[in-house]
Amino acid sequence: MAEEILRLQEVHKSYGVGTPVETEVLHGIDLSLEAGEFAALIGPSGSGKSTLLNLVGLLERPSAGSIVIQGREIGLLDETAITELRGRTLGFVFQFHYLIPAFSALENVLMPQLIDRGYRDREMERRAAALLDAVGLSAAADKKPSELSGGMQQRVAIARALAMNPPMVLADEPTGNLDTHTADDIFALLRQFNREQHTAVLIVTHDPRLASRCDRRIELVDGRIVSDTPTT
Fold first, then answer.
1. Strand partners, 14
2. What's the CATH code of the domain at 114?
3. pLDDT tens, 1-50?
């Protein structure tokens, strides 16, 4: 039986709580993700996808319900413990790469390890270099983001997301700003790491082609999961 990485039970999220404009965005979400799963989260704009991803990414807390990541109940953790769990358990890839402009590609990939450990050593540099090589950018290690194409920048972002060898990667429209060919390349990279390292991936996408190539498709409409089915 595969290890369960993520479980949400009866998760609600409201904004403006206690005010006349209080709005519930998520209405009792039940969701689990196991090690090695590759799932697409789809749904129309305003359906709650970003809110759900923020909760899973430990960037916000639910208004009600339970979120468990690798056996740890988020509601029982203080902010310091949540920050540590986020850094060591989750990798993030966004539509816009958010690389640090003044840093080289290698230094950007090193950043999660530097933040976690507070120092830089040869082993960390070797891992960052190996990840850049894995995404086909070993020759660009010393280049700044401004010297890289959009697709190359997103490859660096993927390498950075994997720097801590996280059990789960959250990808929010990672191909939304790329042409079709480059988008396919980025998707293939995520798939490669998913298969080789057994990394669970939850990818938000508006692209039905990419969603159909995931193992599982979760559809969110008006803050509720309306379908959760395998794609094959």
1. 24
2. 3.40.50.300
3. 568 899 999 999 998 877 888 888 999 999 999 999 999 999 988 888 88
